[in-house]
Structure formats: structure tokens, C-alpha cells
Amino acid sequence: MNGKKYSDSRWHEPLKGETVGTREIQEAEKKEIEKGTEEMLRYFGVLNQDEEYQDD
């Protein structure tokens, strides 16, 4: 170690993600997730009562 803090290369390397698996989401599960998302957005005031959640 040369005395300088955070001088090692590990502090400056970008993080590398790794996908370990994927799965298909069924239509019923997707609708349930969208419903929960809409409820959460309404709770936090992002959506008004007359607005509808649209996943683009």
C-alpha cells in the first residue's frame, strides 16, 4: 500500500452485474403487479384518483 486512500484499482472499476436466471411472467401475475404499482403510486400522490397507470 502506498499510503494514498482509495488508490487501489478496485475502487475505480465499474460494477459488473451478472444475470443468474430469467423467467416468464404470466398475464395474471403481470396484472396483479400493475395493480399493486398503481395503488402505490396513488398512495404517494404520483397518480390522482381519476388517472390510470400505463406501463410503457
Cα end-to-end separation: 50 Å
Oligomeric state of this protein: single chain
Number of helices: 1
Describe the global form.
elongated
Report the average pLDDT across residues.
Answer: 86
- Note the run of SSEs as H and E: H
Instruction: Supply Rg.
Output: 21 Å
The computed structural class is: mainly alpha
Which range does the strand content fall in?
under 5%
Low-confidence stretches: none
- Biggest sheet statistics: none
Q: Helicity, in percent?
A: 25-40%
Number of strands: 0
Sum this structure up briefly:
The protein is mainly α and 56 residues long.
Give a verbal description of the structure.
- This protein is mostly helical and 56 residues long.
- It has one helix and no strands.
- It has one helix spanning 27-43.
Task: For the structure shown, list the relevant keywords.
mainly alpha, 56 residues, single chain, 30% helix
Summarize the helices and strands and which ones pair or pack.
Layout: H1 27-43
